[in-house]
Design brief:
The chain is α/β, with parallel strands linked by helices. The chain has 17 helices and 14 strands. Residues 434-452 have low confidence and may be disordered. The structure holds nicotinamide-adenine-dinucleotide.
Length: 452
């Protein structure tokens, strides 16, 4: 039984702690937030993630998983590994803000009792591993051996547990091969290919991966604009492209663009790193500028659909979270869309199956309602902002009957344009060749598609 400390119980840290304890290790999970730790001790999850509550409960009951707010308690002479899983938000110029990483590295250094492998799971700029090693060395009250290993995390919110337990790969970077091998041993039960490289390369693999996925999203959104102008259907274009295994079907969903806690900040941070080194990040800059056009485009389209004027109109947002199966509202498109609609004079209401509590303070002008049917009542338009499964089979007949005008803007392309028009809706998706062209009737099996 290995003893692991996990620093930070957010989306990544709590999943890491629960998963490693489930694999038979003893895990102490630490956070500076008293509220989160007290809640976890009572069995309350600080975030919504499918399967997490059960996984945490099982391992707490088995005595393998405990929670603390103090580094004294989190690190003792048996601790072998400390995972840093704290946030790395965007700084003022788009750089990653490393204040939480710095604070946790200092606290680890001050409280470690025995040789320790410090593993950076947070997404951090290239070179941070060396910087963290310097901080630890400078902050130790007395010298104790340690090594720094980079182990970037690739899980997706909404499917974080299966992603963690069955990753496509584990990436490890260190200047200390023995330490990297020990961390590799910890990951062996996950049965994924393990890439061992140097610290900087491991840190770069994470940024390059996220930037590539964001590029796919901006690419298909640009194709959507062209499809729309030419009368083609981007959903079928993406499906037709996706059968080619050099392209693949994933991350080719045209829609509101990428959001959430990772892609926006990671693309920005990578562009910042490039610029610092005198390299113009041409592709990354285009990816970001394409993404920035998506949210205002929705406001514009809804306005067009409502006769060019939003004032006095009531608009319902179906879904608020940045993607389904999470309550994460960080950089969620719904926030900007609501602001744009309100600025145009509309009254905006919202419904989301799990994120309304988190969303409410971020969207003070938006009234939250209990279900999609209440949202539809008296609305001039509905906007699909998150592709929750529960929206895919709504009773559209009763939705239409209770709306003031049967207008639906489908920002996630979850409905069939022809069927919606046949059902009497004024319907638009993104890139769907709607202008009377309709779908060309191509028959495809629904793809296993993903969003960021
Ligand atoms: N969320 C994701 O889907 C995801 C996926 C892959 C990688 N990442 C990366 O993982 C990192 C963590 O992301 P997250 O979404 O889990 O963040 P989060 O904001 O949900 O959680 C971070 C936690 O760290 C705690 N914390 C901050 N300073 C601390 C300190 N000094 N000591 C102890 N705890 C401290 C905070 O209280 C918070 O609970 C980021 O670098 C992110 O880019 C996130």
């Amino acid at each position: 039984m290995k003893q692991i400390t996990v620093v930070g119980v957010g989306y990544v840290g709590l999943v890491t702690a629960a998963a490693f304890s489930d694999l038979g290790n003893r895990v102490v999970a630490l956070d500076i937030s008293e509220e989160k730790i007290e809640g976890l001790r009572r069995g309350e999850m600080p975030i919504y993630e499918p399967g997490l509550e059960e996984l945490v409960r099982r391992n707490v009951e088995a005595g393998r998983l405990t929670f603390t707010t103090t580094y004294e308690e989190a690190l003792d002479e048996d601790s072998e590994f400390a995972f840093i899983c704290v946030g790395t938000p965007s700084g003022v110029d788009g750089e990653a803000d490393l204040k939480y990483v710095e604070a946790s590295a200092k606290s680890i250094a001050e409280h470690m009792q025995a040789p320790l492998i410090v593993i950076n799971k947070s997404t951090v700029p290239v070179g941070t591993g060396d910087w963290v090693a310097g901080i630890i060395k400078a902050s130790q009250p007395k010298p104790i051996d340690f090594s720094v290993v980079s182990c970037p995390e690739f899980l997706r919110e909404g499917s974080a547990i299966p992603d963690f337990m069955r990753p496509h790969r584990t990436v490890l970077g260190s200047m200390d091969r023995e330490a990297a091998d020990k961390v590799a041993q910890l990951h062996l039960p996950l049965r994924a290919p393990i890439v061992i490289t140097n610290l900087r390369t491991a840190e770069m693999i994470k940024y390059a991966s996220n930037a590539f996925l964001a590029t796919k999203i901006s690419f298909i959104n640009e194709i959507a604009n062209i499809c729309e102008a030419l009368g083609a259907d981007v959903k079928e274009v993406a499906a037709g492209m996706g059968f080619d295994d050099r392209i693949g079907p994933h991350f080719l969903n045209a829609g509101l663009g990428y959001g959430g806690s990772c892609f926006p900040k990671d693309v920005k941070a990578l562009a910042f790193m490039a610029e610092e080194m005198g390299i113009e990040p041409t592709i990354l800059n285009s990816v970001m500028s394409t993404n920035e056009t998506r949210r205002p485009l929705v406001v514009e389209r809804v306005k067009e659909m409502l006769g060019g004027d939003l004032s006095g109109k009531t608009i319902g947002l179906l879904g608020l979270a940045f993607k389904p199966n999470t309550d994460d509202m960080r950089d969620a498109p719904s926030v900007d869309i609501a602001e744009g609609l309100i600025a145009g004079g509309a009254t905006v209401r919202g419904y989301d199956p799990v994120s309304m509590e988190v969303a409410s303070p971020m969207m003070p002008g938006v009234e939250m309602v209990d279900n999609p049917y209440d949202l539809a009542k008296g609305s001039d338009a509905l906007v699909v902002a998150t592709e929750w499964n529960e929206f895919k089979n709504l009773d559209l007949e009763s939705i239409k009957a209770s709306m003031k005008q049967p207008v639906i803007f489908d920002g996630r392309n979850i409905y069939d344009p022809d069927k919606m028009q046949m059902d009497g809706f004024v319907y638009r998706g993104l890139g769907r060749g709607y202008n009377g062209n309709g779908s060309n009737g191509m028959t495809i099996q629904e793809q296993d598609v993903e969003t960021a």
